[in-house]
Each structure stands twice: as structure tokens, then as C-alpha cells.
Design goal:
Chain lengths: ~625, ~170
């Protein structure tokens, strides 16, 4: 059943022009705080900000109105602004910028800030504040924004004097993008925005205290390459650090993998750094990672962690995590080293620079006569290929009811010919299936909330991606529960004529909650059934989007093709099997070699894996 | 990584920070947010020209946790330097306490005599009370305070440990 509504009327966007504003660029007379904000943003190369107005930030909105260098995207709730900025940042490598008002504006932004903190996404969030003389008086729309966001940000500032404003904004951008990137909040009292002073350009010299190390120590590189040269059963375990380092780091990773012949796996955050089609790539690892990636991690003798952080979703039970390996850990954040897993060779620095240094050192050693153990590596690959043959992503196929995996397989197949496909997700089963079934060949094409697991992330993130890449195919793979958490952003998407595609795998359950309740809590589906769901097709139409629905296998391809062909925002209600579970799965508290495979798995439980019910200990149930 | 229980160690850590609003909240929030222990924490501006303060933290944890604490402190933006005095070599550590004792007769005389043994100074006196100032290691102050309990101990105010490396090393 396919329904296409009439074209809605689109409102004109007055801020489409990107011509620099001559007045702001040339004026050397004292500027108001609000004008300084915009001038500093322009100097930092910001072309778009995501925001929502309110009393305390009215001076900034007034200044916005009178310039053309920075484009403002009006969201429908502040949470959407932060996730949109995250999507923008992840897909471009630039700093995402958010503008919110005081009090509820700032508190609504907190979830997105923590999300960006956990996933190391560079953001600058400008928050309005009540005038300085009212701070602490419980004024209208006052909140202790710096207090609330202190543990939610990499750093934050309260600007109490307009003389410090330019300097603070430039410093905030430096902090957000340097080292391990993260979100920075600048709290701006209204009187500071109204006061006048001269603008100060960005300083040429580095920040006095904040100078993270990016160049790796050559001794650490030599030690790491020693281990790699002696490896019999190696693995490269790569993460978001490679993506954050930039496209060259991904190119370097591919070079290192092919130079050494090492099997390569990736965390959820790192997908796309190594092309999914590369024969050396084993797929994602971790709780819903592939059988071959997890068993390779478990059985390796040398693990090379490049820009990943030994997250609990990756390691499983710590005391059984890759028990017989020497571990190398490359990370830009020294506090990530030895936090969860004790490593043998820490290398602090930028992941891309570390990989380049490893390539150079490996080549130097090999030309000086070092001989990697090719026989052992060939045997290791023979073993890995056996694990691969298990085909751990297989599922029970159906000719009628749509399996969620099937819907994603078709989405992948029907978009594979394009180079400009950006996928975001919400959080839950659909997210893990998207990670398993969508094949990323390039970095910065995959936007998902990894560390914090924020439902409601995907739709605004896709919106931010589409703003940065107007002609690209931006798809939010969603669940029907998650999508309702920021559904209001469909209105923003319509306002700015963004052809974002929302691909809802609708199983009428909070699928991952239901799966855990089935596996851990005796199938007592407590509050995980979503009764009284909206009709997503009508909902789409009410917002001015195109609504499409598929309920049978025979409709899937048509709906996906229609979704791609329509140059407008589309919401697809893909009605899928309610009972499908996401496999493979390492139950919480279990080890990599204790994963559960899906019901389609025909082999007896070799390598510790079992199908159907798995070994979930009491201890494991306590973990999330 | 095998889950062998590691011994709990006590470390004294000195941190040089920018003296700006919120810096102490950042440090304390880091400890509470990540579940680290604070046995004592002292802070005061030590360089007015550079607007820098020195924070001395006494904390306990496994060697892995202590390493984490230092790395986490070091990545705070207003932090200039982090120095683990316990690990980096010999250091001196002192604490100052003000101890109020309210008593009469023999007890009062005995309190004064013990204060003399501990080289505590009476810095305030009335007919019925003393305030002693005592400086030393935490253990010395503990011992003095315990002795004052039967002699009319009324109130104690302690600074927490301040510490500095011995010799010519500087932070």
C-alpha cells in the first residue's frame, strides 16, 4: 500500500544566501556581545548553526537577522538541535554549533551534550543566561547551566565580561576540536550580549594549558611494531578515533591492514573507516558483532587497538576478554589507557598519525630483514574463514512477513550503487541490524549514538547530515519507539525542504527491551509493548512528508525505490516481524566465545557458541 | 586481563590549576562522578600573578585507579600539571589543626602538658578553654586529638594535607 499526499506548501527560508556580510567583516568599531558571537563564529568557519530562540538569546537572534554569513536552522526542540549538530559534525569532521536559550533551553540540550561527550563529537553550544546581576536569584528561565553541564561537557565557560567574549569563543572551538573531541558550552548572560567592546580575532598561538599530544612516541611505535612483527594470530581492532582523525587515517588503516595482512574488525563507532567490502574486514565486533570478529578477538595473540576504548559492549566479561593476547592501545586520550583493560604497549597520539608511524616502522624493519610469520598468519586466516562460514548473520527467511533483516538487506542492495548514502539510526534492535546489514565503504557515512545510546538521536542527526550534504541520500533507520522521541523534527525537515528518509522498522515493541525480557526475564514483556501507536503514514502526511508503508515481502522493494525516487522527506512504515531477535549476541556478563547465535544456525555449538538460549549468569543479569 | 584483586594504595597528588570559578567543582565532580575516594583535599592560590592555585589531594585506590585519577585530572582544561608525590619520590606532608579543649583543674593542666609534648601552641585561652594549634603528619594530629578526648575535647578544625617534594625537584 503506497500513498503519496499532495505537495505541501513550503515556507521560504530567508537565510539561504551565503554571501559574507560586508558590514560584519569590516567594521572595527565596538560591537555588541551578540555581534561578536556571530563574528567569532564566522571567523571559526561556521556556516550553519542549529538553534531555538528565547528571551535570553534574543540579542543573538537580532544579530543573526542582520547578517548573512551564518545560516540558522530552526529546530522544534533543543534536543533536536544538538543531535542535528552532531550529525553535521560527524558527517563533515567540522565542529557542530548549537544556540539555545537559558533555563529549559539549556537543560533540554543536556542529553545531546552527554551523547557528544561519550562519542567524542566536537560541538560548541551557545546558551543564553539571565543577566549577570540576576544570576543566583532564581530569575525567570534561570538555571545553573555551567553547573548542570560540567559533567556533560568536555569543558564549559560562563562569560561575565564582554571583553573576554571573543577569546572565550575561539578557545571553545580549540578545545572542542583538539585532542579527543567533545562538546563545549558557553553560557552567555544577556547583559554581556548587549554590552559593547572591540572584537579580538582568534589568537595565533596555542592555548596555554590545553595542548593534547598528537605525535606518538617513536619508542612506543617501535615496541608496538615489535609485537606486530612477531604475531602469529593478530587482529586490528579499530574505533571512532580513526574516523575522528579524518579521511587520511582511514586510508592509512587500509594501507596498514594490507601491508601486514592482519584481519581487521571495528567498533560501532568506527564503521566505514575500513571498507565493509574489504576481504580483510571481519565486520563489527562486540555484543552484536559477528562470530568471526569476536572469536578472532578472543583467540588472537596480538591485539592492535586503534582509536577504540575497550567499551563494555565490546569486551564482554573483562576477565575473559581476549585472555592470551598482548595488547597495543593507540588513543589520543591518556585516560583511556588502562581504564578498563590493562594493555602492554600504550601509544598516546592521533590515531591517523600512529597508523602512519606504524606503517613506516613496519616497512623499515622488513627492509632491514625482519620477517613476519606468514605461515602462522595463513593458518590464522584458515581458522577465521571457518568461523566466517558459520554465516552468523543468517536469519529465518520468510516469503510473507517482512523480517527486519530482510528490509535492511534490500535497503542496502538498492542503495549500494550510490556513493553518497548517509545512514543514521536511533537506538535498539534496528540500530544493531543497521550496523550488521548496511555496508559502509567510507568513513563519516554512519551516524549513531554509541556510548550514550540515545533514543531520538537519528532523525535530527539525519537532518544535520542533510544540511551539510544537500544532495546526498540521508536515511534514518529507526524503530517506531525511538522515532517518537524526536518526531517533531519532521517539521524542521519540511521547513528546510530536506529530503531526509525516515525508515521505520516497526515491530510495535521496544524491540531490544523485549529481546532482553525474553532472554533474561522469563518473557514477561513489562511495558515494552507500544500500544496505541500512531499511523505513521498519516503522521508523515500531517507534517507535510510523504508516507509509505509496506506490510509484506512483496512490497518492500517498491517502497524503498519510491522512497529514494521521491525528492522530498519520506517516512516509511516498514511493518516487520514482531518477534525477531537480534543475533549474534554476547549476553551481558559473558565472554566473546560464549555468544548466542540465531535460530537459523544449524551447527552444534562449536567454539563455545550456542543457539537459542544462552548462558546468562545471575552476575550477568545485573549488568546492562 | 585476570581479575586479581589489587592492593589499595594511598597517594598524595598535587595539581596546579588556573584559579578560575568552577575549577574546584570540576575536580570534586570528577572524583564523585567516577567514584574515586577523597581522603583530604586542600586548595589555595599559590601564584597570584599567574592566577594559579595548588590543590593537594590524598586519595586511595588500586594502582590502576590511581593512574586513572591522574590521567583524568590531567585532561581537565584548566589543569596545568599533575604530580603524584607518593610515586615520584620523597616528599614532606603536613597538616594543621585547631583543637578546642574545654576543661577545668587537672584535666586542663594535663591538656597543656600534652600540648607541650606535641609542640602544639595555645593560641587562644580563657579560664575554661584552650585552642591549640598543631602541625604535623595526619597520624600525629590523630594521636593528639585522641589524647584530648578524655581531657575535654570540644571541637576540631583540620586543613587536610599539604605536601611538597623534597630536594631540588619542582613541579
Amino acid at each position: 500500500m503506497v500513498r503519496v499526499p499532495k505537495l505541501p506548501l513550503f515556507r521560504e527560508d530567508p537565510k539561504m544566501s551565503t554571501a559574507p556580510d560586508a558590514k560584519l567583516a569590516q567594521d572595527t568599531a565596538p560591537l555588541s556581545g551578540a555581534e561578536i558571537v556571530l563574528k567569532a563564529l564566522a571567523e571559526q568557519g561556521v556556516d550553519v548553526i542549529f538553534g531555538y530562540p528565547g528571551g535570553a538569546v534574543l540579542p543573538i537572534y537580532d544579530a543573526l537577522f542582520q547578517q548573512n554569513s551564518v545560516r540558522h536552522i530552526l529546530v522544534r526542540a533543543e534536543a533536536g538541535a544538538v543531535h542535528a549538530a552532531e550529525g553535521y559534525a560527524r558527517s563533515t569532521g567540522k565542529v557542530g554549533v548549537v544556540l539555545v536559550t537559558s533555563g529549559p533551553g539549556a537543560t533540554n540540550a543536556v542529553t545531546g551534550l552527554v551523547d557528544a561527550l561519550m562519542d567524542s563529537i566536537p560541538l560548541v553550544c551557545l546558551a543564553g543566561q539571565v543577566p549577570t546581576h540576576l544570576i543566583g536569584n532564581d530569575a525567570f528561565q534561570e538555571a545553573d547551566t555551567t553547573g548542570i553541564t560540567r559533567p556533560a561537557t568536555k569543558h564549559n565557560y560562563l562569560v561575565k565580561d564582554v571583553k573576554n567574549l571573543s577569546k572565550t569563543i575561539h578557545e571553545a572551538f580549540h578545545v572542542a576540536r583538539s585532542g579527543r573531541p567533545g562538546p563545549v558550552v558557553i553560557d552567555l548572560p544577556k547583559d554581556v550580549l548587549m554590552a559593547k567592546t572591540e572584537y579580538a580575532p582568534a589568537p595565533a598561538k596555542a592555548h596555554p594549558t590545553y595542548a593534547p599530544r598528537t605525535e606518538p612516541d617513536p619508542k612506543a611505535i617501535a615496541q608496538a611494531v615489535d609485537l606486530m612483527l612477531g604475531a602469529k594470530r593478530p587482529i586490528l581492532y579499530t574505533g571512532g578515533g580513526i574516523v575522528n582523525s579524518g579521511p587520511d587515517a582511514s586510508a592509512a588503516l587500509i594501507e596498514l591492514a594490507h601491508l601486514t595482512g592482519f584481519p581487521t574488525t571495528s567498533t560501532l563507532m568506527g564503521l566505514g573507516a575500513m571498507p565493509a567490502a574489504d576481504p580483510l574486514f571481519l565486520g563489527m565486533l562486540g555484543m552484536h558483532g559477528t562470530y568471526e570478529a569476536n572469536l578472532t578477538m578472543h583467540g588472537c595473540d596480538v591485539m592492535v587497538n586503534l582509536g577504540a576504548r575497550f567499551d563494555d559492549r565490546v569486551t564482554g566479561r573483562l576477565n575473559a576478554f581476549s585472555p592470551n593476547s598482548k595488547k597495543i592501545h593507540a588513543d589520543i586520550d591518556p585516560s583511556s589507557i588502562n581504564k578498563n583493560v590493562r594493555v602492554d604497549v600504550p601509544v598516546v597520539g592521533d590515531a591517523g598519525k600512529i597508523v602512519r608511524a606504524m606503517i613506516a616502522e613496519w616497512k623499515r624493519r622488513v627492509s632491514a630483514g625482519a620477517k613476519p610469520d606468514k605461515k602462522a598468519l595463513a593458518d590464522w586466516w584458515t581458522q577465521i574463514e571457518q568461523w566466517r562460514k558459520r554465516d552468523c548473520l543468517a536469519y529465518m527467511r520468510s516469503t510473507d512477513i517482512v523480517k527486519p533483516q530482510y528490509a535492511l538487506e534490500r535497503l542496502q542492495a538498492l542503495t549500494a550503487h550510490r556513493d553518497d548514502v548517509y545512514i543514521s539510526t536511533e537506538v535498539g534492535q534496528h540500530q544493531m541490524w543497521a550496523a550488521q546489514f548496511m555496508k559502509f565503504q567510507k568513513p563519516n557515512r554512519w551516524m549513531t549514538s554509541g556510548g550514550l545510546g540515545t533514543m531520538g538521536y537519528g532523525l535530527p542527526a539525519a537532518m544535520g547530515v542533510q544540511i551539510a550534504h544537500p544532495d546526498a541520500l540521508c536515511i534514518d533507520v529507526a524503530g517506531e519507539a525511538s522515532i517518537l522521541m524526536n518526531i517533531q523534527e519532521l517539521s524542521t525537515i519540511v521547513q528546510y525542504r530536506l529530503p531526509v528518509k525516515t525508515f521505520i522498522l516497526n515491530n510495535q515493541y521496544m524491540g531490544m527491551v523485549r529481546q532482553w525480557q525474553e532472554l533474561l526475564h522469563g518473557s514477561r514483556y513489562s511495558e515494552s509493548y507500544m500500544d496505541a501507536l500512531p499511523d505513521f503514514v498519516k503522521l508523515a502526511e500531517a507534517f507535510g512528508c510523504v508516507g509509505l508503508r509496506a506490510t509484506k515481502v512483496s512490497e518492500v522493494d517498491d517502497v524503498i525505490k519510491e522512497m529514494i525516487a521521491v525528492k522530498r522527506p519520506v517516512v516509511v512504515d516498514m511493518c516487520v516481524d514482531q518477534k525477531e531477535n537480534c543475533f549474534p549476541m554476547i549476553p551481558s556478563g559473558a565472554a566473546h566465545n560464549e555468544m548466542i547465535l540465531g535460530p537459523s544456525d544449524k551447527q552444534p555449538g562449536t567454539g563455545g557458541a550456542s543457539n537459542g538460549k544462552g548462558p546468562i549468569s545471575e552476575e550477568g543479569m545485573v549488568l546492562v | 586481563m585476570p581479575n586479581t584483586p589489587a592492593a589499595i594504595e594511598r597517594h598524595t597528588i598535587a595539581v596546579i590549576v588556573d584559579n578560575e570559578p568552577g575549577v574546584l567543582a570540576r575536580v570534586i565532580g570528577l572524583f564523585s562522578g567516577r567514584g574515586y575516594n577523597i581522603e583530604s583535599l586542600t586548595v589555595a592560590e599559590t601564584d597570584a600573578a599567574k592566577h594559579q592555585s595548588r590543590i593537594t589531594i590524598v586519595t586511595t585506590g588500586t594502582p590502576m585507579v590511581i593512574e586513572q585519577i591522574k590521567a583524568q585530572l590531567d585532561r581537565l582544561v584548566p589543569v596545568h600539571r599533575v604530580s603524584d608525590l607518593t610515586q615520584e619520590g620523597a616528599h614532606v606532608a603536613r597538616e594543621l589543626a585547631l583543637v578546642k579543649v574545654i576543661s577545668k583543674g587537672n584535666e586542663r593542666v594535663e591538656a597543656l602538658r600534652i600540648a607541650d609534648i606535641f609542640r602544639a601552641k595555645a593560641i587562644d585561652s580563657t579560664i575554661g578553654s584552650f585552642v591549640f594549634e598543631i602541625t604535623g603528619s595526619g597520624e600525629k594530629i590523630d594521636a593528639f586529638v585522641n589524647l584530648m578526648v578524655p581531657l575535654g575535647l570540644a571541637e576540631v578544625s583540620r586543613t587536610g594535607i599539604v605536601a611538597i617534594a623534597r630536594g631540588e625537584t619542582r613541579m
